[in-house]
């Protein structure tokens, strides 16, 4: 089953690696419990097939980082980038993208959240394992309000610009 508008996000434990401790997150991999982290918040989420991949690094993630202030102006509390990668890779990618304070780079290391959403993408034949489809969503208090799923190999409907238009 694939998640749809109006559905509650599934509970899952994700992980985030940051370099500087804050009130909300200690240095090192910290757990991000989806229900707890989305409670009472409006969150823009975009997912990518892999960290450091060309389309993800050159276009998808930079679009959300550049638009962070526009999202905040529309009442979005946080922007999350989710990928089926480990938290160390996601932390390094976030640093590389200069995303601190703009976009949280959150790992779905085992792909359990991605599978619960019905968004897994099997690239095993190519040696890449099971990844996430490319998508974006707007979530309010854990409920999906907008959802944009890309056709394989495309970046059109899940861009920051498209999600901003829908808010």
Automatic annotation (TrEMBL):
Pfam families: Redoxin. InterPro entries: PRX5-like, Redoxin, Thioredoxin-like_sf, Thioredoxin_domain. Residues 3-167 form the Thioredoxin domain. Keywords: Antioxidant, Oxidoreductase, Peroxidase, Redox-active center. The active site is at 56 (cysteine sulfenic acid (-soh) intermediate). Transmembrane segments: none annotated. CDD domains: PRX5_like. GO terms for molecular function: thioredoxin peroxidase activity. It is an enzyme of class 1 (oxidoreductase). GO terms for biological process: cell redox homeostasis; cellular response to oxidative stress; hydrogen peroxide catabolic process. PROSITE patterns: THIOREDOXIN_2 (PS51352). It comes from the Bacteria. Its EC number is 1.11.1.27. One of its GO terms (cellular component) is cytoplasm. Signal peptide: none annotated. Thiol-specific peroxidase that catalyzes the reduction of hydrogen peroxide and organic hydroperoxides to water and alcohols, respectively. Plays a role in cell protection against oxidative stress by detoxifying peroxides. Belongs to the peroxiredoxin family. Prx5 subfamily. This is Glutathione-dependent peroxiredoxin. The gene is prdX1.
């Amino acid at each position: 089953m694939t998640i749809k508008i109006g559905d509650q996000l599934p509970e899952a434990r994700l992980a985030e690696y940051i370099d500087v401790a804050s009130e909300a997150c200690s240095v090192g991999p910290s757990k991000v419990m989806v229900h707890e982290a989305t409670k009472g918040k409006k969150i823009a989420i975009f997912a990518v097939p892999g960290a450091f991949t060309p389309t993800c690094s050159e276009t998808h993630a930079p679009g959300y980082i550049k638009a962070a202030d526009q999202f905040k102006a529309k009442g979005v509390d946080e922007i999350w980038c989710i990928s089926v990668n480990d938290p160390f890779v996601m932390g390094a990618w976030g640093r590389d993208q200069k995303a601190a304070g703009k976009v949280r780079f959150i790992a779905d290391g085992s792909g359990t959240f991605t599978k619960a959403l019905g968004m897994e993408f099997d690239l095993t034949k190519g040696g890449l394992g099971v990844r996430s489809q490319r998508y974006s969503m707007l979530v309010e208090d854990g409920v999906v309000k907008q959802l944009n799923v890309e056709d394989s190999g495309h970046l059109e409907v899940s861009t920051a610009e498209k999600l901003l238009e829908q808010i």
